[in-house]
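Memo to structure team: turn this sequence into C-alpha cells by end of day. - J.P.
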Amino acid sequence: MGEIILVVIGILIALQINNWNEAQKNRAYEVKMLSEIKRGLIGDQINLQEQIQAYEVLKNTADKFTSLTQNMVVFHDSMQTELWNLNIGRYFQFNTGPYEALKSSGIDRVSNDSLRNHLINFFDFELIKFRAQVDHATRRYRSNVEQLLALREDPYIDNKNNWVVNSIPNDILQKPEFIWLLADIEWRATSAKNTIEKFTPKINALLHQINDEIENK
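Reply from structure team:
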C-alpha cells in the first residue's frame, strides 16, 4: 500500500510540474505577444502625431492664403513653395499584424478578461470606425490636388525661347475656384486632425493596460 501511495504522489507531483511548465510557457507567449502589440501601438502613436503636425501645417497654410486672398495680394514666385504645401496628404496605416497573430493563435491566451475584451473592442471595432472617419475626412484629398494643379497656366515658350511649365497665374489668389479650394482644404485639415486627436487617447488607454499586464507578469 505504501508503494502505491508513493507512486500516486509521484504521478501527482509530475502532473503538477508539467502543468506549471505549461503555465509558464503560456505566460511567456502571452507577454511576448502583448509586447509586440505594444511596440506596434507605440509606432502607430508616433505616426499619428506626425499626421497631426502635418494637418496643422496644412491648415495654417490654407489660412495664410485665405488671408492673402482677402487682402487682394498678388501672387509672387516666392510663395510657390508654400503654395505646394496645400498638397499635403497623409496615408493612414495601422500595424495590426501582432494582434492578428495573437487572434489566430487564440485570443483566449490573454488571461486578463478585461484586457482581452479591450483588445477585441479596440482592433475589431474602434479601429475600424476610426478608419472610416479618417477616410471620410480625407476623401477629397485627390480632387483637391487635381484642382490645384488645374489652376496652373498652360505651358508656353518665354522670350528666351525656353519652355515654361507649372507656372502659377498672378491672379490665382483672386480666382473663385482657388478661394473655394482653400475652404475645402481647411475643412479637410481640421476634420482629419480632430478625428486623430479624439482617437489618440484610446491608444493611450490600451497601452496603459498592456503595460500593467506585462509588469504583473
